[in-house]
Amino acid sequence: MRRWLARASLLLSVVAAWLGAYVVWTFAGGLALHYGLLGTYHGALFAPVAAIGGVCHYRVQARAGREGGLAVFVGVQLAWLAVVLLQNGAFGNVW
């Protein structure tokens, strides 16, 4: 019973983190697009990224602990930032 509660708590915290990330990225991307800081932002693409990232986050955190899970969370956020910057020509005309 105790292990099940720990897993449920972990799942809830991972889901909350990724839902929060989705809200923040959608809001920030929309604002940046509205004010001309970005030329394009495809917020719908972040949903599958968040789903896959959440599964990886949960699995790593269940096995390696909180630090491992946070490393996955931050790594996926930085990868998404790189994708957004790439889409908007921050690295030259690559996209």
Using brief descriptors, characterize the structure shown.
mainly alpha, 78% helix, 95 residues
Describe the structure.
The chain has one domain (2-87). The radius of gyration is 16 Å and the shape is elongated. The termini are far apart. The chain contains 3 helices and no strands. It is 78% helix and 0% strand. α1 (2-34) packs antiparallel against α2 (46-64) and α2 packs antiparallel against α3. The protein is mostly helical. It has helices spanning 2-34, 46-64, 66-87.
Q: What is the N-to-C succession of helices and strands?
A: HHH
Distance between the termini: 50 Å
Strand proportion:
under 5%
Task: Please tell me what the overall shape is.
Answer: elongated
Count of individual domains: 1
Low-confidence stretches: none
Structural class by helix and strand composition: mainly alpha
Number of contiguous helices: 3
Mind summarizing the main beta sheet?
Answer: none
Radius of gyration from the alpha-carbon trace, in angstroms: 16 Å
Mean pLDDT across the residues is 92
Number of strands: 0
Helix content: over 70%
Compact summary:
This protein is mostly helical and 95 residues long. The chain contains three helices and no strands.
SSE layout and pairings?
Blueprint: H1 2-34, H2 46-64, H3 66-87
Helix pairs in contact: 1-2, 2-3
